[in-house]
Each structure stands twice: as C-alpha cells, then as structure tokens.
Design goal:
By secondary structure, the chain is α+β, with helices and mostly antiparallel strands.
C-alpha cells in the first residue's frame, strides 16, 4: 500500500496499490467521503498511466489542485 500526503486539498492523504500496472484499493483520508469513495471505485482496476492522463490538471472549482489531480500526482510519483 502506497501513501501520498496531499497538499492544498481538504483531504490529508491518499492510499492505493498498483498491481501489474493497475490501480487498486484507492482511499482518501479526509475530504468529501461520497465523492472520494466514488473516485476510488471509478479508478479501481484502471491502468495507472491511464488514470494519470485522465486526472492530471483537474481543478477544484477555480482552485488547483483537486483531489483527483493529487491522485494523479501520487500515481506519477509512485511510478
């Protein structure tokens, strides 16, 4: 399990596994539980590089970074 400490978002950390290049068990500490649980479900089993391409650069309203963009940063750092 990899843990990434977030920066500039309401969540404090992101936890995930990458197995055979695919994301698994994505969870967040803090933030909006419903949205973040949905994000984890949506990326479950997705190739990690595909998730980075889809999530990088997403903003939260007008403020970067979003939790989705932070997930992309976490995955890139882990890869």
């Amino acid at each position: 399990m990899y843990t990434y400490k977030t920066n500039g978002t309401c969540s404090r950390a992101i936890h995930f596994d990458i197995v055979d290049g695919k994301l698994h068990h994505v969870t967040f500490d803090g933030g909006c539980p419903g949205n973040l649980k949905a994000l984890g479900i949506l990326v479950e089993g997705m190739p990690a590089r595909e998730a980075v391409a889809k999530l990088a650069g997403i903003t939260c309203d007008t403020k970067p970074p979003s939790r989705a963009a932070q997930l992309a940063c976490a995955i890139k750092e882990h890869l």
